[in-house]
Write a structure and sequence with these properties.
Number of domains: 3
Number of helices: 11
CATH topology of the largest domain: D-Maltodextrin-Binding Protein, domain 2
Strand content: 15-25%
Strand order of the largest sheet: 4-3-5-13-6-14
Structural class: alpha/beta
Largest sheet: 6 strands, mixed
Oligomer: single chain
Order of helices and strands: HHHEEHEHEHEEEEHEHEHEHEEHE
Shape: rod-shaped
CATH class of the largest domain: Alpha Beta
Distance between the termini: 40 Å
Low-confidence stretches: 310-315
CATH architecture of the largest domain: 3-Layer(aba) Sandwich
Length: 315
């Protein structure tokens, strides 16, 4: 239940009461409020009628009555809380406060979300964040359960409820073959399919899509035996010089830039990409902080070269 003031009490009456109490007189209170003394007296009289007694002892000097003493701290608290609420609302409107909840594919949580969040949080330190990561199905369940408002997932989405999702941003990123700089494949930089199968073992199977990419699945099976690993496990192994894998570029962008890993071109193999999107279930305008974070995410994706043009697409 929402607490309410008695119907006959309004903020003007409480403000007049506070000013008379602080100024010690009706005339001085009226001057600070830019009102006539009769108007201030009328407001105090109306408030006294509500509380059932005199709030001030009137004489040469106006002082608080016992009833006024009892009311004073609550009247002050009411105005303090109201002022704090108005300030909070202004900060929310300016995008400086709010709460952002996001579910993200694990492969995007580090390479895309982390730098975007770092720059956003530096400029908006009072905005609250809740970020969860996992596979495509986990992110979808977070959205359906209402635990997050935004989701970074594989796109287009073909599952039940697809029509309820709106894509705010869409991304397309390459999925290159990646190895350690000292791996035998690294000295070739461009290899044939046969060389990949011979030198690339173990070739890790990584699940970047809701289902395995058929071409990569065929390659992994041909290299055998099949080693299906979590993306971070496979990345750690490749960084240690063991094995090879097709990684989404956002996950290994820093590793490639710092030459901890190298990308290898496979001759005759078509370019493989993964499409993802930042989506939401709700319609209508975004909260200011949420809209600013979407912009930060778009800027980071643009710098990585994975942002597609166009927004608010539907599945």
């Amino acid at each position: 239940m929402i607490p309410r003031l008695p119907p006959s009490v309004d903020s003007d009456q409480l403000l007049a009461f506070l000013r008379v109490a602080s100024e010690g007189g009706f005339s001085r209170a009226a001057a600070t409020l830019d009102l006539g003394q009769p108007a201030v007296s009328a407001r105090i009289a109306a408030l006294e009628a509500t509380v059932g007694g005199a709030l001030f002892a009137r004489g040469r000097k106006v002082t608080l009555s016992p009833l006024g003493e009892a009311l004073l701290p609550y009247a002050r608290r009411a105005f303090d809380v109201l002022a704090q609420g108005i300030e909070s609302a202004r900060l929310v409107q300016a995008g400086r406060r709010g709460r952002i909840t996001l579910g993200a594919l694990g492969s995007l949580a580090g390479g895309l979300v982390t730098p975007a969040l770092r720059s956003f949080a530096a400029e908006h330190p009072d905005v609250e964040f809740l970020v969860r990561s996992g596979d495509h199905e986990h992110v979808v369940s977070l959205l359906w359960d209402g635990l997050v408002e935004l989701g970074l997932l594989a796109w287009p989405f073909r599952g039940a409820g697809a029509a309820d999702l709106t894509a705010l941003l869409t991304f397309s990123e390459p999925v290159p073959l990646v190895v350690h700089p000292h791996h035998p494949l690294a000295f070739k930089r461009r290899v044939s399919r046969d060389e990949l199968l011979e030198l690339g073992r173990p070739l890790y199977r990584l699940r970047w899509w809701p289902e395995h990419h058929p071409l990569l699945d065929e390659l992994v099976r041909a290299a055998g035996p099949v080693l299906e690993l979590p993306m971070e496990t496979a990345r750690a192994l490749v960084l240690a010089g063991h094995g090879a894998g097709f990684f989404t570029r956002t996950l290994v962008a820093d590793d490639l830039a710092e030459k901890r890993l190298v990308a290898i071109d496979v001759h005759g193999m078509p370019r493989i990409t993964r499409e993802t999107a930042l989506v939401r279930r709700r319609t209508g305008p975004l909260a200011p902080a949420l809209g600013t974070f979407v912009t930060a995410l778009a800027n980071e994706a643009r710098s990585l070269g994975v942002l597609e043009r166009g927004r608010r697409r539907r599945a």
